[in-house]
């Protein structure tokens, strides 16, 4: 029966692989009910802050650039004399693209290192993993990436866009361009599914038809059928919430199928300058993105930011929206601490409202209630040089509205 | 109608990718009964070979042409090394082979991460392969997928001819059908094993080159595909090629149709249920090799 032995062993092998995968997913909870708020250690002549980003694994490509950008802000502040006379001492941890690791490292930064604030996280999954840790310890997290909204933790400051500062303006732009129908393509996890729920509610209220909705697992590289469906739907535009490397396969397939940015534009919300470089401009030229900042955004503050970044990390390194939001986060924290006159979390929180900063994207203002910031929405087009140039902006900063309370069509969402 | 043909072609091209990956396995797993969990990493090696060549050879077209034979040799050599250093010592212990090759697979992934960095990399496709062929009725067929289909069919044809007509092919078949009898008849089974492993691993390298036309190149790209490829060989029937060819295309079309009518995840479920049902009915696979072997 040697012919069958192979298969039986193969079955064993698959079980083994599956078991390994499950172990990897098993959550290492760090919950300790006895712990209440940990106060930051600010007795020395330095103040410690935590940097929590993935330096390895699938998210490293994006999160390393955020870490670099945070370090740039820290250096600038230290060169200018620090915060309340204390130099910032950054303590870096690697989240390793693994959500339980994020929670573990957050606990370590708060309880052992007793940092005054933590900057980091990228995916919504990692934010959701660390949120209870920060809330339990009454510690502060600054989260620098656009996300799906519908969240407002008292211990998180959101310096990236919420939906009404990115996705809704993106849809407004498509509507103004005359798009009557859209096709939704996204990765299969919390951000794209929530975003698409919001998009469908918007479409229903604005006379737009959603012709189809498809999800691919994170890391998926087979888009033949999805592109076929998109093509045969004849939609006016595609709204793309794919994350990571799936974008490479999607846009390769899109071009092979003969679809172009002029015939059926794709609006992406997770493709910034760094990702354009990775995917290749040959596939992306002319496609649209929705963000709050581009490397090409005009203004003295941005010229200074771009020049400083390139001087520190290399002339070929582009700057992007999440990097800018992370850079802004550190400066905003400094302003909050100085207004409060203390590093104490509750004092910093109550001092936060109304704080402004002359950011590379333009002046931003902290909203003390939602702990989000008012940002200008910008639609951009990918150029042949791999940079994104703005084709539309909201003219003035858009007030954050994470629960979309001011939009009647969103009343059914939760 | 256009959609129907479009989907049919998508299914066939998914099948072609599956076939390219499974073909090497049909040799090493199907013919030699070695479960090589590192097969996926040979695919990765082929893909990174394309990437490295593109850094040094200008012109995406030429680098692809050069990459095909080079990737075949690179992956094949890795296969032979694995065979000589580890697998040869474990022929009678299939479970150990499985664990050892799985370990090798993890080491190769880490090696790729150390050498090329953990973010995935991309290659530029030649202009010719980024376009499509427009057929009457608005149907378009992507050039890169046509290329992969042609490559898969050429590989099947070459392998079939080699197994049927060459002295080496005859020896491989003899060893598969009855190793002991082949050995006493003077066939150098150890050398035949090594050559078979070279061919099987080399085919994985070819698959890697083809995959650079569809998606990104990363340390874990092989692992995502290897399970599907094992399924193709198991369902097709161990020990011969034609079952794998038929099953690869059948699964591709089933996957594409299911995905068109439902969603990607549901389509995967449909494919797996179909496989389980099929194996209940024909546990030995689509075709079986008739042998007089008593083992």
Automatic annotation (TrEMBL), chain A:
PANTHER family: ALIPHATIC AMIDASE EXPRESSION-REGULATING PROTEIN, PTHR47628. InterPro entries: ABC_urea-bd_UrtA, Peripla_BP_I. The keyword Cell membrane does not apply. Residues 1-20 form the signal peptide. It comes from Micromonospora arborensis. The keyword Signal applies. Keywords: Signal. The gene is urtA. This is Urea ABC transporter substrate-binding protein. It comes from the Bacteria.
Automatic annotation (TrEMBL), chain B:
GO terms for cellular component: plasma membrane. The chain crosses the membrane at residues 6-27, 59-82, 146-163, 197-217, 229-254, 261-281. It is found in: Cell membrane. It comes from the Bacteria. One of its GO terms (molecular function) is transmembrane transporter activity. Keywords: Amino-acid transport, Cell membrane, Membrane, Transmembrane, Transmembrane helix, Transport. It is a multi-pass membrane protein. Pfam families: BPD_transp_2. GO terms for biological process: amino acid transport. PANTHER family: ABC TRANSPORTER PERMEASE PROTEIN, BRANCHED-CHAIN AMINO ACID TRANSPORT SYSTEM PERMEASE PROTEIN LIVH. Belongs to the binding-protein-dependent transport system permease family. LivHM subfamily. This is Urea ABC transporter permease subunit UrtB.
């Amino acid at each position: 029966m040697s012919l069958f032995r192979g298969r039986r062993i193969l079955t064993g092998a698959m079980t083994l692989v599956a078991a390994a995968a499950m172990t990897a997913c098993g959550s290492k909870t760090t919950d300790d009910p006895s712990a209440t708020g940990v106060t930051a250690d600010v007795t020395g002549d330095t103040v410690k802050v935590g940097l929590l980003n993935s330096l390895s694994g699938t998210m490293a490509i994006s999160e390393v650039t955020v870490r670099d950008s945070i370090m740039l802000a820290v250096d600038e502040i230290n060169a200018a004399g620090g915060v309340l006379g204390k130099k910032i001492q950054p303590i870096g941890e690697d989240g390793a693209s693994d959500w339980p690791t994020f929670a573990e490292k957050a606990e370590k930064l708060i309880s052992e290192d007793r940092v005054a604030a933590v900057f980091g996280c990228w995916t919504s999954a990692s934010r959701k993993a660390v949120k209870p840790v920060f809330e339990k310890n009454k510690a502060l997290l600054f989260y620098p990436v656009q996300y799906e909204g519908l969240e407002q933790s008292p211990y998180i400051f959101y310096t990236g866009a919420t939906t009404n500062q990115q996705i809704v303006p993106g849809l407004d732009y498509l509507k103004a361009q005359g798009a009557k129908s859209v096709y939704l393509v996204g990765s299969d996890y919390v951000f794209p599914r929530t975003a698409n729920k919001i998009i469908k509610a918007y479409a229903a209220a604005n006379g737009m038809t959603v012709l189809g909705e498809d999800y691919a697992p994170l890391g998926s590289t087979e888009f033949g059928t999805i592109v076929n469906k998109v093509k045969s739907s004849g939609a006016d535009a595609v709204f793309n919430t794919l994350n990571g490397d799936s974008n490479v396969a999607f846009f390769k397939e899109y071009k092979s199928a003969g679809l172009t940015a002029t015939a059926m534009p794709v609006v992406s919300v997770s493709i910034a300058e760094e990702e354009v470089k990775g995917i290749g401009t040959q596939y992306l030229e002319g496609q649209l993105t929705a963000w709050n900042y581009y490397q090409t955004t005009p203004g003295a503050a941005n010229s200074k930011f771009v020049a400083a970044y390139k001087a520190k990390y290399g002339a070929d390194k582009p700057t992007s929206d999440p990097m800018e939001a992370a850079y802004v986060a550190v400066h905003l924290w400094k302003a909050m601490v100085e207004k409060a006159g203390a590093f104490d979390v509750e004092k910093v929180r109550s001092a936060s409202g109304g704080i402004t900063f002359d950011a590379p994207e333009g002046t931003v203002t902290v909203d003390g209630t939602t702990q989000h910031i008012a940002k200008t929405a910008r639609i951009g087009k990918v150029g042949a040089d791999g940079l994104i140039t703005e084709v539309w902006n909201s003219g003035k900063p858009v007030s954050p509205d994470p629960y979309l309370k001011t939009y009647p069509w969103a009343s059914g969402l939760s | 109608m256009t959609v129907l043909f479009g989907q049919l072609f998508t299914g066939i091209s998914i099948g072609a990718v599956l076939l390219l990956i499974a073909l090497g396995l049909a040799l090493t797993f199907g013919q030699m009964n070695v479960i090589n969990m590192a097969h996926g990493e040979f695919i990765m090696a082929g893909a990174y070979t394309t990437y490295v060549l593109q850094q040094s050879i200008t012109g995406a077209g030429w680098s692809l042409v050069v990459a095909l034979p080079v990737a075949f040799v690179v992956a094949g050599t890795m296969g032979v090394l694995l065979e000589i250093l580890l697998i040869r010592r474990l022929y009678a212990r299939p479970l150990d082979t499985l664990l050892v090759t799985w370990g090798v697979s993890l080491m190769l992934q880490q090696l790729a991460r150390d050498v090329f960095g953990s973010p995935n990399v991309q290659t530029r496709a030649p202009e010719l392969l980024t376009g499509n062929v427009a057929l009457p009725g608005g149907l378009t067929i992507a050039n890169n997928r046509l290329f992969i289909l042609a490559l898969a069919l050429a590989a099947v044809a070459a392998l079939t001819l080699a197994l049927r007509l060459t002295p080496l092919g005859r020896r491989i078949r003899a060893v598969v059908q009855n190793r002991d009898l082949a050995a006493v008849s003077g066939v150098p089974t150890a050398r035949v094993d090594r050559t078979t492993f070279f061919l099987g691993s080399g085919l994985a390298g070819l698959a890697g080159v083809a995959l650079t036309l569809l998606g990104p190149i990363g340390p874990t790209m092989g692992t995502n595909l290897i399970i599907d490829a094992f399924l193709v060989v198991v369902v097709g029937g161990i020990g011969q090629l034609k079952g794998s060819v038929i099953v690869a295309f059948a699964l591709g079309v089933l996957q594409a149709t299911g995905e068109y009518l439902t969603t990607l995840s549901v389509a995967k479920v449909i494919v797996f249920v179909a496989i389980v049902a099929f194996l209940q009915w024909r546990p030995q696979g689509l075709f079986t090799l008739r042998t007089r072997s008593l083992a």
